[in-house]
Amino acid sequence: MKFPSLRSPAGRIKSSDEQLTLNEHLAELRVRIIRSALAVALGMILIVVWYDPVLRFLSGPYRNLCEEKADIQATCNFVSLGPLDAFGTRFRIAMWGGIVLALPVIMWQVWRFVVPALHAKEKKYAIPFITSAIAMFALGAFLAYWTLEAALEFLIAWSGEDVIATYQVSKYVSLVTLMMVMFGIGFQLPVLLVFLQLVGVLKPRMLMQWWRYAIMTIFVIAAVITPSGDPISMLVLAIPLTLLYFVAALIAWLILRRRPAPGDA
């Protein structure tokens, strides 16, 4: 079974008149996956070595809240409720941290695998899209971290006056990492919208016609994917995504208006 022009298993991009077998495609995919996995493993090792500074960084919003609110109904200390709790927390932080550190390598491997299948006009957008995706993920993760202090204050206040909050370290780390990851994924929406417009699936005019339904959908999605469930985090995610929805339509419109008409030479 033959496939059109991708690459050789050694990583050399093939010309348009060469073909690869199914086994060669699978071999190339295996190489890309192994390289990505090695990058993640190296990132995990770095996180394990610098585990204490990373944990202090993740617990920063909670510590800041305790320092600023002296009357807060919380012990301001983490607890470990089982022999494997600390090990699981370290592994979870190392896993997510390794993926984040290896994200540029992973995106590059994906790009190298799919680039031969793209047309020339699509290839020129690949690097900007990869850079934009990484930047938007970082922006979403930053917003999640920035809003975490207000979210924790809201959640502690809703526990009741007679309730003293004592957080298990593994559950706190799970909340922080999940919020940062979900916000980062949510901020891929404008990148996806621009891509769909450039390939002709959507048009800027369609986005402007659907803006009411889009805003409602964005707020519903923000409410669903916000792990903490508090309204503060939901609004911090939904409002920027709403603005970026219109920005994505504007960017695609500016790019598409420069393209020559289909009948032009």
Walk me through what this model shows.
By secondary structure, this protein is mainly alpha-helical. The protein has two domains: 2-186, no CATH class; 188-265, no CATH class. It contains eleven helices and four strands, in the order E-E-H-H-H-E-H-H-H-E-H-H-H-H-H. Helix 4 (85-114) runs antiparallel to helix 6 and helix 4 (85-114) runs parallel beside helix 7 (169-186). The longest helix has 32 residues, at 126-157. It starts with a strand and ends in a 9-residue tail after the last helix.
Write the layout of secondary structure elements.
Elements: E1 2-4, E2 19-21, H1 22-49, H2 51-58, H3 60-68, E3 74-79, H4 85-114, H5 120-123, H6 126-157, E4 165-168, H7 169-186, H8 189-198, H9 204-209, H10 211-225, H11 231-256
Parallel strand pairs: 3-4
Antiparallel strand pairs: 1-2
